[in-house]
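Researcher: Good morning. I'm working through a list of sequences from a screen, and I'd like to move beyond sequence-only analysis. For each chain I'm collecting a predicted structure so we can compare shapes side by side. This is the next one on the list. No need for commentary yet; just the structure.
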Amino acid sequence: MGVDVFQIGSNSGQESIVPAGPEISLNQKELPKPQFHSFHVPNPDMHIWLMTTKPGERVFPNATFQAMADEDLQNLQKFWSVGNEQALFDSLFLSQFMKISKTKLYAIFSGNIRNVGWKSLKDADRSLFSKGQSCIYRLDASYDGKLNVNWVPFFSAQSLVKDPDFGSLWRLFQAGAGEPRSHSLCMFSLSEPRLLPDVIALLINKEPERSQKLSEMVEWFGVYSSPSEPNLGSCALVYSKKREIVAALETLQEHFLNIVTQTQKELVEDVRPRVAIRVVSRHVVL
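Model: Good morning. Structure tokens for this chain:
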């Protein structure tokens, strides 16, 4: 399925995979932290920013979610679309990422939303998806110790949406979950509206140099991937010809790492459901 493959190894690419099991670690020091890397590649000339989490291990312990009564889980799902420790990580990362992408942001939502999560959406979310520009290709990624990123043609038309608010972006992303291996959200920033028809053409037609041509038109493009299989990790990848874009992301990563560390501390010290609810209400505004 892959077309115009971008494949970048993280470090040596030999990171061991530890399957997620029933054991719950309540020692914060044993919980993994997201890892960040910045690269520059000469051909094509691009700056690249990468975030990964260790395959097979989750950043947050699931003790809080196991301890939840049905009502607590229903409230987290109803008000924040968070039902487990992975969704908590996804929501925190994407909410912080959106802070540097408030305008001129385009997101490509999975066409399978109409089949798997349509009824769970709000009317405004369904309207936003339906008004989006149809396209075929979007970035798909997975991380199992090696990063695999492909421009993939999906047979259900994707929806390209401009400047979604975070609430809709998050709910639409969650509604498309359940894809094999990992669930990806492709995004880019475009400051020149006159170039949008050319960008859309790249997302519809076969093009062996899609990434290179897209990088000439947009400020950045990238993908966030949430694992659907327990032996995979989360990852986020941004490409840009502009060094300042990566510099902004390097500032973001320090802030996000502080949020992760504080959240881990709170969840380890108190596994009661109210802790997870307090975390999302503090950082995730829908």
